[in-house]
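testing teh design pipeline on a random one, pls ignore if ur not involved
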């Protein structure tokens, strides 16, 4: 039933000729095997053919003769062009500022700008300039980057992107879903892009110096996690185009044996704790 649902979603793309060769083959094979989907496909095809045969009748010259006159008469009858007579109510504000509507809008905009400038000066006074701070003996604040901070940002981004890919594979259920849902060609393309970043990350890990003692253990664990992810990404990238369920299960078992997802969760927890500690110290 799940496979039929996925196949029927391809009908619209087939009618617009937007399917690739692999999807066309999958659709043709399924239509030969499933009578229900074949009947629905034939119904939609016959309906589209019928709609294409319908000829749109354009109005003749007699319709356009006097069209503008008839249109103006109808607009006058429906009171589109003629405004209703009535006494205009004049308020005190209108008496002070006579003029069209745009004049009131301009005055209101000027008033709002003046109020905004006043509130901004009262609530948010300007900060003292840097040279004044030097005269007052206050040292300028200089942002200090920890050693390897750029490497940490790249590594965290690499781990997050790898986690999305692995979760898609782990959550795939071959008993209720078709391999088409997993979209292996896309997963392989993502794996190859991530593998291109591994070389730079491992090289930077080897050249980082000046780390505090507490950070050595964290960097070592991250390096091990990157190595585990590299092995799994290589397995995904080298899967054949017609990989069966058993091959996908091997990748899933490799993720479970190495405990990669558990290590990723620990990395997320440590990252959250570090951000919280930094926010409390500021």
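output:
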């Amino acid at each position: 039933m799940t496979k039929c649902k996925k196949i029927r979603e391809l009908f619209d793309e087939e009618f617009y000729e937007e399917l690739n060769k692999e999807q066309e083959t999958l659709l043709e094979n399924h239509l030969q095997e499933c009578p229900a989907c074949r009947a629905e496909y034939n119904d939609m095809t016959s309906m589209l053919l019928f709609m294409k045969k319908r000829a749109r009748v354009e109005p003749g010259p007699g319709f356009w003769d006097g069209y503008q006159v008839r249109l103006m008469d109808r607009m006058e009858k429906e009171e589109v062009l003629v405004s209703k007579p009535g006494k205009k109510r004049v308020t005190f504000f209108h008496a002070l500022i006579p003029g069209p509507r745009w004049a009131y809008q301009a005055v209101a905009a000027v008033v709002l700008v003046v109020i905004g400038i006043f509130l901004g000066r009262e609530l948010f006074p300007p900060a003292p300039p840097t040279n004044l701070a030097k005269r007052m003996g206050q040292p300028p604040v200089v942002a200090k980057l920890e050693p390897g901070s750029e490497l940490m940002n790249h590594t965290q981004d690499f781990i997050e992107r790898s986690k999305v890919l692995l979760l898609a594979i782990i959550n795939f259920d071959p008993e209720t879903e078709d391999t088409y849902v997993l979209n292996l060609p896309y997963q392989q393309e993502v794996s190859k892009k991530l593998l291109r970043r591994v070389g730079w990350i491992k090289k930077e890990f080897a050249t980082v110096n000046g780390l505090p003692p507490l950070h050595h253990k964290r960097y070592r664990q991250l390096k091990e996690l990157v190595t585990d992810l590299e092995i799994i990404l290589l397995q995904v990238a080298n899967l054949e185009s017609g990989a069966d369920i058993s091959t996908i299960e091997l990748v899933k078992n490799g993720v479970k044996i190495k405990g990669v997802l558990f290590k990723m969760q620990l990395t997320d927890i440590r990252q959250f704790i570090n951000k919280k500690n930094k926010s409390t110290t500021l």
